Amino acid sequence: MMRHVLRILLIWAATTLPAGAEQSVSSGDIVVHYSAMTTADLTPDVASALNVSRSRKRALVVIHAQHVDGAQRQSRAATVRGTSKNLVGQSRELEFRSVRDGDAEYAIATRPVANLETLVFELVVDVEGHPSSLPIRFRQQFYH
């Protein structure tokens, strides 16, 4: 049931962003894709498979690391740590966990979110087999 679920989420996130706003960072042959959305955007089956409650008041952060070799892309395990901070400076530590989806591995975290709240995510991603950490910083506004 989980097969390709998170890939679909990343594609969904990529297609709902403004043109040219690809959400990824790269270092050498490693690319890390990231997205954030409310868990209400998940189908009931996907939320169940991820063991996540569907709610407009809950954000989901998805991280996917890949090793790129020409046209070939291979998912890599990643350890993610970081925080989210609202615009008045209130910070919350994020707790990421790994989720396997077929041959792909993702790191996901959830946190409460208010209507119209903008969060700044500051993450550090350690990708299996890559010598250095990759920092990610992005902003996302959430709507109920």
CATH architecture: Sandwich
User: Mean pLDDT, rounded to whole units?
Assistant: 88
| Straight-line distance between termini | 28 Å
Determine the CATH superfamily. Domain of unknown function DUF4426
The major β-sheet equals: 6 strands, antiparallel
Overall shape: globular
How many structurally independent domains? 1
Looking at the structure, the CATH topology is Immunoglobulin-like
Tell me the series of helices and strands, N- to C-terminal: HEEHEEEEEEEE
Please indicate the percent range of residues in DSSP E strands (runs of 2 or more): over 45%
Question: What this model shows, in words?
Answer:
The strands form two sheets. Strands 1, 2, 3, 4, 7 and 8 form a six-stranded antiparallel beta sheet that branches. The protein has a four-stranded antiparallel beta sheet with strand order 6-5-9-10, with no helix packed on it. The radius of gyration is 15 Å and the shape is globular. Helices cover 13% and strands 52% of the residues. It has one domain (5-141): Sandwich (Immunoglobulin-like). Mean pLDDT is 88; it is low at 14-21. The longest helix is centred in the first third of the chain and has 12 residues, at 5-16. It is mainly beta and 144 residues long. The chain has helices at 5-16, 44-50; strands at 24-27, 30-38, 58-69, 72-76, 78-86, 91-94, 97-101, 104-112, 118-127, 134-141.
What attributes characterize this protein structure?
144 residues; mainly beta; Immunoglobulin-like; 6-stranded antiparallel beta sheet; 4-stranded antiparallel beta sheet; 2 helices; 13% helix; 52% strand
